[in-house]
Amino acid sequence: MTDLDQISAHILRALSSEGRISNLDLAERVGLSPSACLRRVQDLERRGVISGYRAVIDPAKTGIGFVAYVTVGLSRHTKSAQAEFERLMQAAPQVRECHNVTGTVEYLLRVEARDLTAYKQFHTEYLGAFPYLDRLTTMVVMGSPKDARA
């Protein structure tokens, strides 16, 4: 486990909400000199605490009008069945997130599609074709009053 002091935690909070902040502005915000701040950020990157940076994209502006969370239960609970399912999800551009979870199902997916028709095709022809599928439950996102994913 990585121990973080208050300054490093403050740096991570600032970067998670504003990943494109300049080093000068970040240093000012966390109360360090620019060189000390840069060394801290580089150390956090080197240690893998910061694993990357990404753009937050508005799905609607890229033609995505349908977002759903899908729970997936498998009929076979073997390592090979899970690995096969995970490979299938890696290859599906509609699947933006795939989480192996505990409980009554094995996976929770975040799926983005152009519209309901496109989702139905993905649901029926892609997910439904997986040989060890036991059950699917789709929860359509109607709004996102808070979304802190970056």
Describe the SSE topology.
Elements: H1 6-17, H2 23-30, H3 34-46, E1 66-74, H4 79-91, E2 95-100, E3 107-113, H5 116-127, E4 133-140
Antiparallel strand pairs: 1-3, 1-4, 2-3
Helix pairs in contact: 1-2, 2-3
What is the CATH topology classification name of the largest domain? Alpha-Beta Plaits
Q: What would CATH call the class of the largest domain?
A: Alpha Beta
Number of domains: 2
User: Low-confidence spans: pLDDT under 50, at least 5 residues?
Assistant: none
Number of strands: 4
Count the DSSP helices: 5
> Could you report the average pLDDT, rounded to the nearest whole number?
94
Shape: elongated
Quick one: CATH superfamily of the largest domain?
Answer: Lrp/AsnC effector binding domain/regulation of amino acid metabolism (RAM) domain
Order of helices and strands: HHHEHEEHE
Proportion of residues in helical segments = 25-40%
Using the 3D structure, state the CATH architecture of the largest domain.
Answer: 2-Layer Sandwich
For the biggest β-sheet, the strand order reads 2-3-1-4
- Structural class call reads alpha+beta
How much of the polypeptide forms β-strand, as a percent range?
A: 15-25%
Instruction: Give the radius of gyration.
Output: 20 Å
N-end to C-end Cα span: 23 Å
Note the main sheet: 4 strands, antiparallel
